[in-house]
TrEMBL record:
Entry annotated with the keyword Membrane: yes
Matching InterPro entries: Bact_OuterMem_StrucFunc (IPR050330), OmpA-like (IPR006665), OmpA-like_sf (IPR036737)
Matching SUPFAM superfamilies: OmpA-like
Keywords attached to this entry: Membrane, Transmembrane, Transmembrane helix
Protein name: OmpA-like domain-containing protein
Keyword Nucleotidyltransferase tagged: no
Organism phylogeny: Bacteria, Pseudomonadati, Pseudomonadota, Alphaproteobacteria, Rhodobacterales
TM region positions: 6-25
One Gene Ontology term, aspect cellular component: membrane
Length: 332
């Protein structure tokens, strides 16, 4: 039904109020039917009975009985006042107006949903929440430091290459990925680098900046991407395979030119241990705002980097283990 536990609990509380009302009016009705001598009934009681018959109170009681509510609900009715005191009058009225329409099966499910957890379990949960949180704080600090370091690295790339990349028609994304459209590096349908010197002037500073950052960079990737358009008269499957080969060759050729521009031995060795190339064909298309394919933007080469997160995760695991050893096992 989409109710929270609190809302379901309030709804059950209000149903108990309805039960209480039914019990009152039903008792009054049975007293009327069993009365042999109307003279023994006071005028005010008679007026109450007549009012109940005319305003629908007794009809509501019969409806509740037909819905499956019986005298065995008396114990729950006695708790109604204790629960309802937490409710505002307007909330109670709103719930009352809707609960009379609930099916019996729905009421049964609600009672299962809001079954209160034993107090001991609630206390144990609270104890867990109140444990010293130094490990959590330390993990949060580590993540914040890693994010700040990555942000600083992107800033270095922007300062070193931003103007050059944009002047050539490319862009640097917020995560540091550099995107060069097809027309910067290739002629349409070709995999040969059109201007190798331009790529070397860009790729050398890219690798140098990443290596000099001092961060643990695990991967450098050169990715070829294509549109969904293939050769004339090709099916979509044939176009995908054609573009897969084209994007892979373009990425590999870009990697070879990039490595060829690295003259420093240490820098070349560092790059070889991290650089890879792959072609994605049309698997990662660029879409326009209306969702349609932007073919020109989809034809591109991306240069991305990835930081080594294994050590960060290992440090966080160590923090949690030390915290657990310090706190010790929870007592039942």
């Amino acid at each position: 039904m989409g109710l929270t536990v609190a809302e379901a609990f309030i709804l059950l509380s209000f149903i108990l109020l309805l039960l209480f009302t039914w019990w009152q009016v039903d008792t009054e009705k049975r007293s009327l039917l069993l009365a042999d001598n109307l003279g023994e009934i006071s005028d005010s009681d008679k007026a109450s009975i007549i009012a109940g018959l005319s305003d629908g109170t007794f009809a509501m009681a019969r409806a509740l009985r037909a819905a499956g509510l019986g005298e065995q609900d008396q114990a729950a009715i006695e708790d109604t006042e204790r629960y309802s005191r937490f409710m505002r009058e307007e909330d109670l009225k709103r719930l009352m107006s809707g609960a009379v329409e609930l099916e019996p099966g729905t009421r049964l499910k609600l009672s299962e949903v809001v079954e209160v957890t034993p107090e001991t379990r609630l206390r144990a949960t609270l104890d867990d929440l109140l444990l010293p949180n130094s490990a959590v704080t330390q993990a949060s600090d580590r993540l914040a430091q890693a994010a700040a370091a990555e942000e600083g690295l992107v800033g270095m790339l922007e300062r070193e290459l931003g103007d050059k990349i944009r002047a050539a028609g490319g862009e640097i994304k917020a995560d540091g990925t550099i995107i060069l459209p097809q027309n910067i590096l290739f002629n349409a349908g070709e995999d040969r680098i059109r201007d190798p010197e331009l790529l070397r002037q860009f790729c050398g500073p890219w690798v140098q900046t990443l290596q000099s950052s001092g961060l643990d960079i695990s991967d450098l990737k050169i990715e070829g991407h294509a549109s969904s358009e293939g050769q004339p008269n090709q099916t979509s499957e044939e176009a995908y395979i054609y573009n897969l080969g084209l994007s892979q060759r373009r990425a590999q050729n870009a990697l070879q030119v990039c490595l060829g521009g690295l003259k420093n031995g240490d820098l070349l060795s560092w790059a070889r241990g991290r650089l890879s190339s792959t072609g994605y064909s049309s698997a990662r298309l660029v879409a326009r705002d209306d969702g349609s394919e932007n073919r020109e933007a989809s034809r591109r080469v991306e240069f991305s980097m990835a930081l080594n997160r294994e050590q960060l995760l290992e440090d966080i695991r160590g923090d949690l283990k030390r915290e657990s050893a310090t706190v010790g096992p929870m007592q039942p």
